[in-house]
Amino acid sequence: MTLTLNIPDYLDLxxxxxxxxxxxxxxxxxxxxxxxxxxxxxYSKRTFIEILGKYxxxxxxxxxxxxxxxxxxx
Length: 74
Description:
mainly alpha
């Protein structure tokens, strides 16, 4: 699917910022895994996780069940 957005020039964002904003929000909402979101943003999983903080997104889930699942799968 292709999505076209009309973004005002005064926002002065790079193309990578747009991809990262969308990917980080989808990750934060639990719609994508970290690996899927990293791929969408065009980064490795490690790099994606490292720069999530810049977009005010925590690597850690707010859900206890998700946290327990992450620990079990580590």
